[in-house]
Amino acid sequence: MPRHTSSEPAPITVDFVRVRVEQTPLPGIGVRHDLVTSSGRTVGVVSHRNGRRDLVLYDVDDPDSCLASIPLTDDEAEALADVLGASLMLGQLSGLREQAAGLLTEQIALPAGSPFVGRRLGDTRARTRTGVSIVAVLRDREVIPSPGPSIVFEANDVVVAVGTRDGLGGLTAILAGEHGD
User: Among the four residues 55, 99, 125, 148, which has the most C-beta atoms within 10 Å?
Assistant: First the structure.
């Protein structure tokens, strides 16, 4: 899929913090968003008017030549966005860990036998009891950022928490039911 021809409208460039994304209307088709990675590779997403999406990888030697076009269903596009979003969030949290001495980020799986399955996050009293902040819950392919105290835990949720080593150990014990709830 060519990146730009003279018959297409000129691309619109949007800068996202440190990343440049070009948006190009494709008359009769939809819109294409391209981003050039720091390694010089160009990746794009073509969003068709009928709702279909294609993930596109361009040839590094000929940026107008498409090496691969992968059609994505709605579920696949959502899963890819979730995976990329979760890994970005966890990477940012890891960067916080480096900046804040003594603070760690940890993913804690909620075991199926936990007394908190089917109960609210607030019932754990995690912050009060351990000083740990629960910053996200990973559920299936979904990321729930900044969960409030009313979120209800499900079996196999993964809690993303920030705190001290002792605090994280305490939260792990609480979620496993090793401390009175």
Answer: 55
Q: Does residue 118 lie in a domain region?
A: yes
Q: pTM above 0.85?
A: no
What is the number of domains present in the chain?
A: 2
- Model confidence at 133: pLDDT above 70: yes
- Residues 31-62: pLDDT tens digits? 888 888 888 888 888 988 888 899 999 888 88
Examine the fold and report which residue of 39, 72, 105 is the final residue of a domain before the chain moves on: 72
Residues 121 and 95 in one domain: yes
How far is 61 from 33, CA to CA, in rounded Å? 20
Neighbours of 111 (CB within 10 A): 15
Neighbours of 94 (CB within 10 A): 11
Q: How many CB atoms lie within 10 A of CB 176?
A: 16
